[in-house]
Amino acid sequence: MTATSSDLQTCERVKMLVGGRWETGGSPRLGPVYNPSTGRVLAAVPFCTADEVDRAVQAAAEALPAWAETPVVERARVMFRFRDRIAAHAEELAALVTREHGKTLAEARASVQRGIEMVEFACGVPSLIMGQSLANIARNVDCETIRHPVGVCAGITPFNFPVMVPLWMFPVAIACGNTFVLKPSEKVPLSAVRLGELLMDSGLPEGVFNLVHGDRETVDALLTHPLVRAVSFVGSTDVARHVYETGTRNGKRVQAAGGAKNHLIVMPDADLDQAVGAVQLSAFGCAGERCMAGSVAMPVGRVADDLVERLARVAGSMKVGPTDGGAEVDMGPVITREHLDRVAGYLDIGAREGADVVLDGRATVLPDRDGGFLIGPSVLDRVEPGMQVAREEIFGPVLSVIRVDDLDAALAVGRGCPYGNGASIFTRSGWAARQFKQHFNAGMIGINVGVPAPMAWFPFTGWNGSFFGDLHIQGIESIHFYTQQKMTMTRWFESPRESHHDPVWKTGKG
Ligand code: NAD
After folding, report:
1. CA dihedral 400, 403, 407, 410 (to 10 degrees)
2. To test ligand 1's pocket by mutation, which of 157, 188, 224, 239 has the most ligand atoms within 8 angstroms of CB?
3. Which domains does the chain have, with CATH numbers?
4. Which pLDDT score is estimated for 4?
5. Phi and psi at residue 150, in whole multiples of 5°?
6. What is the per-residue DSSP string for 395-428?
7. Cβ-contact 450, 279 below 8 angstroms
8. What residue owns the CA closest to ligand 1's atom 16?
């Protein structure tokens, strides 16, 4: 059931944070936050007006000078406390992620852990932010670089990782001395509120972190605000492009991670038990709602029949159901009713395009089918590279299988793909793995690993339509994104009192 605006008026409103004060805002525009396991509305999220966004940015700008001047070790200590608070509340956060997103509790726990690692990375800021120096670069001339914060930064995040993706952004930005305005997905704003509370409890000064909610209007208000200096975005490709183009046109530095279509190549010599398990987890983990989900399997040569038969069997035996309350299921719901219909629609599209629907998730036996946004795993075989189901991001539990004759044919499919986030190969051959690593057209490569999502210390290196910008999220590139360098060249001259033969620094006599 879709919530009406009068239903929403009676719901609890999600809070925003401006200049250290939590408020519900005055926006007349509200959106529903669903529990995807039950289809019921958990809360109403206010879509902030441009004035409210302006207040949040102004608060961040006012807090900036003092925070940027705060010694880096003190900023790091706030992050250490924040890390401990998230760890102490990890179970609560995971339950919240499950409630508003729908992924299983095990998946939610893993995503919170990945977020904690990002804060641990930010705790290392004193070493990470150091500049370089070179004495005597010319005679009596020394040169050094130091890293300054860029100013007020904004972060715009997607629905699929309500804790982890916001933690990709603001801990590093804040540790580097910037102030921040976060705009989480309007579908999952509750986890972001809880993160904000834990951050403020960690001793962060008021105004350094601010939280606003909303949709395109809110995002555009941030993208065009003259005081916002840098924008981090994660979401779908069309929106990533819009954010990149609008942000850069308005003079901001932008990193915008987009959608994906990730390929899993299974060579004839692969350990098939291992490959089947990894492809299953990659395609159907988090109900396929991962930018690193393996959504296209490419069996090479004779392995195809066996692989498809085994994948259909294991996927068909997955237990699908509501996840809220920690239910023991293998796969939970997708995010909304509209998204469920969209995912189901791709099964019709695939069938019309000539694919074999060997497993139809619409036929999966589901408990509580009327309430939650549930659909089982699907496998489409004999998909051709030009089909919509091969090229478009479905972002649900649908695996397309493109059969290829050899590795070169698999590489050619990769070259024709408009995205370029991740790809994996399953093989026992070092040569095949090396060819794949060198030549596949994607930024993150897995070898006998289904989801090659990098950990906090390495950048999230999407290519093509999966990333717009220069400096990626995570790792040292994120430190570079959230800082600007200053180079100082110094030359001192001998004063008349300091003779060349008897310099004051040598004798100690002034
Ligand atoms: P989305 O693009 O719909 O929304 C992302 C954010 O942009 C949200 O905060 C939303 O409010 C805002 N937004 C939506 N439409 C907008 C518009 N027209 N103008 C300005 N802002 C707008 O994405 P989603 O559905 O929340 O998340 C799923 C997408 O995110 C998938 O495509 C997935 O691949 C991608 N994703 C990518 C990565 C990555 O690292 N590349 C990681 C996670 C998710």
Report:
1. -40
2. 239
3. 50-259+462-488 (3.40.605.10), 262-447 (3.40.309.10)
4. 76
5. -85, -25
6. -SSEEEE--BSSHHHHHHHHHT-S--SEEEEE-S
7. yes
8. 216
Is 240's C-beta closer than 6 angstroms to any atom of ligand 1? Answer: no
Check if 236 has its Cβ closer than 6 Å to any atom of ligand 1: yes
3-state secondary structure of 299: strand
Instruction: Report the separation in Å between the CA atom of 42 and the middle of ligand 1, taken as the mean of its atom positions.
Output: 21
- 210 touches ligand 1 (CB under 6 Å): no
Ligand 1 center to residue 157 CA distance, Å? 6
Structure tokens at 60: 């961040």
pLDDT of residue 480: 98
Burial of 246 (0-12, 13-18, 19+ CB in 10 A): middle
30 neighbors 49 (Cβ within 8 angstroms): no
Please give the full DSSP string across 89-120, using - where no structure is assigned: THHHHHHHHHHHH---HHHHHHHHHHHHHHHH
Q: What is the pLDDT of residue 476?
A: 98
| Rounded Cα–Cα distance for residues 87 and 91 (Å) | 8
Angle of helix 272-284 relative to helix 304-316, nearest 10 degrees, comes to: 50
DSSP letters along 278-333, please? HHHHHHHGGGG--TT-EEEEEEBGGGHHHHHHHHHHHHHT--B---TTT---SB--
State whether the beta carbon of 196 lies less than 6 angstroms from ligand 1.
no
- Specify the pLDDT at position 186: 98
Annotation says 143 is catalytic: no
Given CA atoms 189, 191, 195, 197 in this order, what sign does their dihedral have? positive
- At 290, phi and psi to the nearest 5? -135, 140
The verdict on the CB of residue 100 being under 6 Å from ligand 1 is no
Confidence at residue 407, expressed as pLDDT on a 0 to 100 scale:
98
Q: Whose CA is nearest to atom 17 of ligand 1?
A: 216
Q: Which of 48, 123, 291, 417 is catalytic?
A: 291
Ligand 1 nearest atom to the CA of residue 214, by list position = 11
For ligand 1, the distance from its centroid to the CA atom of residue 237, given in whole angstroms, is 8
Beta carbon of 215 within 6 Å of any ligand 1 atom: yes
Residues of the chain whose pLDDT is less than 70?
1-2, 368-370, 498-510
- Tell me how far apart the alpha carbons of residues 420 and 444 are, in angstroms, rounded to a whole number: 8
CB 172 within 8 Å of CB 209? no
pLDDT at 78: 98
Write down the pLDDT at residue 3: 74
Q: Please, where are the H alpha helices in 317-406?
A: 337-353, 388-391
What lies within 8 Å, CB to CB, of 206 at 6+ separation is: 19, 20, 21, 59, 63, 200
> What is residue 212's DSSP assignment?
-
384 CB within 6 A, ligand 1: no
Cα 160 to averaged position of ligand 1 atoms, centre (Å) = 9
CB 145 within 8 A of CB 487: yes
Comparing CA positions, the residue from 56, 54, 41, 172 lying closest to residue 99 is: 41
